[in-house]
Structure formats: C-alpha cells, structure tokens
Amino acid sequence: VNNYNSKQSVKEVAAGYLKEIRELAAVPYTVMEVCGTHTVAIAKNALRDLLPAQIRLVSGPGCPVCVTDSSDIDQFLYLAAQPHVITATFGDMIRVPGSQKSLQMLRGEGADIRIVYSTLDALDLARKNPGKEVVFLGVGFETTVPTVCVSIEQAQKEDIRNYSILSMHKLVPPVLRALAEDPETEVDGFLDPGHACAIIGSEALAFMAEDYGMPGVVTGFEALDILEGLVMLLRQRDQGRAEIEIQYDKIVKPEGNRVAQALIHKIFEPVDAAFRGLGIIPLGGLGLRKEYADWDAAKKFALPEFETVEIPGCRCGNVLKGQITPPECPLFARKCTPLSPVGPCMVSSEGSCAAYYRYAQRS
Ligand code: SF4
Questions:
Q1: Predicted ipTM?
Q2: Which of 128, 129, 276, 339 is the most buried (most CB within 10 A)?
C-alpha cells in the first residue's frame, strides 16, 4: 500500500501527502492515534501544526504505563514492600503514583526496586540472588509479552523458582472495542498501533470496521508513515469505505506473527483487566495459565485487592479516551509538569501530556 517513491525527497513526499490531506479534509475528521509511540512522533514532528484545522488528532489508550490502574500500582507497592523481594521494572513505571505513593518513593524508603532493560536482566537478578524473590512487573501490550514468555520458558528450563511475573499486561482489541461501544467516543478513524499489530495482525482489529463501521490504518512511526496513514484514512471516508488497512506493511501482516501468538497463548490467557480511566474491560488483559503458576507472582504472594483511586484533578482518563487534549486539563503545565507530574500521562515518555508539554503543540 505504501506510496513512497524513492526518487522523491522526504520533503516532496510530505508535501504530496499534506496536499492530499487538505483536499480530502473538507469536513471535520477526528483521528485517534492509539499508540503512545505515535503520540510522541506526532508531537516531535509538529504534525498537528501542519495539518488543516478540520483534522483533529486525539490520543488513545495505547501508552501502557498510562493505562495501568492505581489499584495495580498499589499491588506493585504492596509486593515491593516485602523484605525478601527484589522488584524489577522498566523505568517509566517507577514514577507513576498509586493511591499513596510511587515505587520511586518506596525505593527512597529502602525497598529493593531495580530498573531493568529486559526481562532477561530480571531473570539474571534471580540467578544472582537465590535467597530473594525477584518479581518482574509485567506492564505492556501484546508487543512486549513475547519477551516475558521467553523469560518464563528460560526460568522453567533452568528450574529458577525465585523468579515470577506480576502480569498487568493489556490487550489492544478489547480496549478498542470498549472505546467503540462508549457513546462518548467521538472518533472517525484510528491510526492503529504498528508494534502491537506486528504481533496480533491487522485481522485482529477487523471487527472495528465490520461491527462498528470504524476504519483504521495500521501505521508506522516515521512522520511520513503517519501522514500516509492519515491519507489512507481520508481516502476511505472519501470512497465510503470502512476497513482496517496496513500502511506499515514492512512489519505488519494481516495474520500477524503466528509464532509469537502461539507463545503468548501457551503461557497466558485473557483475563478481565482494570484500565485507568476506562474501568474494568472484560478479557482486556493477560494472566498466567495455571500450568505456569510457579512463576505467577499474583498466586505466589496471595496479593490483596485494592480499590481504584482517582488522582484529584487529573484528567488522564479523558485524555486516554480521546475526549480532551492535555492542554484542556486545568493542571497541565501549571501544577503538572514532567518534573512534578500529577498523573501517569505526564510521567511516561509515551504519555500524551508529556509529549504535549515537551513539544508545545496546538490542541
Ligand atoms: Fe493528569 Fe497531568 Fe495530564 Fe492533567 S496534565 S491529565 S493532571 S497527567
């Protein structure tokens, strides 16, 4: 589907896409970029400022740190406070507030919380600390789950019993279905997440077009990819179509990555999951199958359940549903900044509020 012509410069290709977008944008059109990486790319390349006013880009629920509910963070905190536990997590998660504090604050109080760059680093921590329990905080969409699976398989192979996962993994199709069924969602088309769809395939999102008449284009992460994705969406409207197309065809296939899907299915099963701002989404997350209970921190530690607690004044939930843009939150750039974040959308490097703040864009 790609329209790039290798003889044209990037500037010429971009100018061509922008011209077509202007021609096709006679009436207002709201596009949700589902993925946090899209949000950052759009902000960094100032694409909002280049688009005609009729095209409104809103962020979606694809930033995994942002959608992690306060109740899940409270479970992380409960676990991390245990004296014999080393908690391993990716970096952004450490600063996100739960109901009382963040992992960073708990670390300041003496908890052993380590930032890792891969699940295999976390597994290595378990190897090197046989007298401790190492728990990896599983936060992310389908994109990152295969690497978690690999670490569990390796732990099983080496019979490493002091390693486990606290799975708060989320799934893209159920959260998009929840958005499609929400009467307050005012989105005409979706830039669908290229990374997650590399695993699940565009066919996994076909229901959005078939059941709800909502078109989507699975899009890559360069500025030209995003502009081309927008052109493809607007062409669908112009031609009266609603389909799930692939712009990012270098990476994404309609059927996805069957090997990765089989690995995920072998170790995980869909479970209900709490999304910040969206509530409980049926079968919206992944839990470990009972065959892997030895590596399931939720079973190993009999964790208590926590209530969801809203952060006073934070409109992250509305941002994640595309209902407002970050500058419409009264705390944006006043009480809430990247140095002093109030909500997760300002903490995460892929958060919409952080992207708006860093690259100062139009609403
Ligand atoms: Fe929440 Fe801060 Fe974003 Fe407002 S600006 S929605 S307080 S993260």
A1: 0.99
A2: 276
